[in-house]
Amino acid sequence: MATEQKQTEAGMQRWRMTLVLVAFASLLLLLLGRLIMLHTIEQPFLFEQGEKRTVRSELQPASRGMITDRHGEPMAVSTPVVTLWVNPQQVDPQKMSEVAKDLGMNARDLVRSVEKAARQGRSFHYVKRQVEPELAGRILKRRIAGLYGDDDFRRYYPAAEVTAHTLGIVNIDGKGQEGLELAFDQYLQGQDGSRKVVKDLMGNVIKQLGVDAVPQAGESLPLTIDLRLQYLAYRELKAVVQAHKAHAGSAVMLNAKTGEILALVGQPSYNPNNRATLRPEHMRNRAVADLIEPGSTMKPFTVAAALESGRYSPSTPVNTSPGYKRIKNKTIRDHRDYGVLDLTGIITKSSNIGVSLLAHDVGPEAIWELYTKAGIGQPGTLGFPGEATGSMPYPEQLDELRLATVSYGYGLSISPLQLAEAYTSFVDGCRKHVSLLMVQTGTQPCERVMSERTAHQILDMLETVVGKNGTGKRAAVEGYRVGGKTGTAHKVGRSGYEDSEYTAFFAGLAPLSDPDLVLVVVVDAPQGQEYYGGEVAAPVFSRIMEQALRLRQVIPDQPGEAQMLQVAGGSR
Known about the structure:
It is a single chain. The protein has helices at residues 2-39, 43-54, 96-103, 107-119, 133-140, 164-167, 179-183, 185-189, 227-243, 286-289, 299-308, 343-349, 352-362, 364-373, 400-407, 416-423, 425-428, 452-465, 533-551, 561-569, and strands at 55-60, 67-68, 74-86, 125-131, 147-156, 193-199, 205-213, 221-222, 248-255, 261-267, 317-319, 324-327, 330-333, 340-342, 430-432, 446-448, 483-493, 496-510, 517-524. Helix 3 crosses helix 4, helix 11 runs parallel beside helix 13 (352-362) and helix 12 (343-349) crosses helix 18. The protein folds into two domains: 57-222, Penicillin-binding protein 2a (Domain 2) (Alpha-Beta Complex); 227-272 and 282-570, Beta-lactamase (3-Layer(aba) Sandwich), CATH 3.40.710. The termini are far apart. The chain is α+β, with helices and mostly antiparallel strands. The strands form six sheets. Strands 2, 3, 4, 5 and 8 form a five-stranded mixed beta sheet that branches. The protein is elongated, with a radius of gyration of 38 Å.
């Protein structure tokens, strides 16, 4: 009996052992099968799910191309910044109070905005964009769960308001909105890159797995602008606008031989680096986008048309008596009865009657042809956003009255830049197309406006305007021969020309022996007793031109008073 019981117990132990071994073997086989399945059938799915939780494709922003002046000085650069953002589903909104304090933000508003985003189920919410890297680094070191930082770039303009109208601005996403930033947006943008990284829950990069695309910075944009000349032109223009309480002003300086724009300034301006007080009306580039009636600055072109006809010379007399002329229902007047003037005297005294008589004699076709060749009423060649075209009546529209007004700069429109471009034709009779980019090589094509002989005769006439008996004597520059023309035009109001609102102009060249610079100054609606071009714009022309010629190391073409004394009295 005892033996049978022992045999039964031994059998049960073997059975139990076998059952346990079978169970362990089954579990082992099950685990082995599961492992095989995980590493074969389910491996791609698990790998994908793992990557979704740890691997990120991170954007690598490209730096926007630099804009420089003709000497390589930076005018617009992109500086590194950090964009701070949170995942509202991960972050503790109350911890945002500390972040807000560091960023100078309202803590209550930031906490509320994060809580609202969390209630809406959003997984992304901006804290602040374009934060300085040092400040962002200190905030991220706190390792607040759900708070992240992305590298970015911010556009910075070293010359601020001095170059604002020309360069324009970009928005917070780095897209061009105005000026050259808009015109060359794609050229300046560059190509963003991307990389694959492993990040922890705090957003820290643990490992870089690879680079999908290398960021490529945007191309640099070298301009013809000379920052030295830009600064001095802006300073003098701003001073005259403030001194005369004018509504606005603009100035354009060109290389007389090539048409390259060396300075392009306007008032009022704005600071593109601080847009808290930005006003849209201050963003317009008045030198390029505004249309003006150029007034008496067009008289040299009328005289040029008369010279080109072959019936006149600079000394041909023209009787302007009695100083006024009735045409249809309008009376054209001079400041006084100048009597008999030759063509040079018509320019010197700025006689409306004189140029009207010349225009009627040579006819509308000749006037229209020369004006058109000079670029009046023609599309701009610069390609600047908002560049004005202007207007010029066709010959069949130029009746006796309109032909007379066009001869002295009324009844047509032109931008200050186009006026400066037109004045380059007085260098050698050939109009140089303006350029703003340093891409020209060799001799640039130009359009023949008048003969070289006529151009030189006009220069001699323009020199008398700056002489003692001329209307623009305040434009004189010591040591240099200067030629130019004053202009004063009534502003157009709702009911026609305003009796007490004017635009003052001066357009000229220097030095006349070998013209190097063309400069046009426009002062819009100067207030007070002085409003003529010779009183308001001519002095600004003199100050800008004097400094510009010396900066460019242009040799004086006439002796100054000190030099004349030295020659007369010997060395000293």
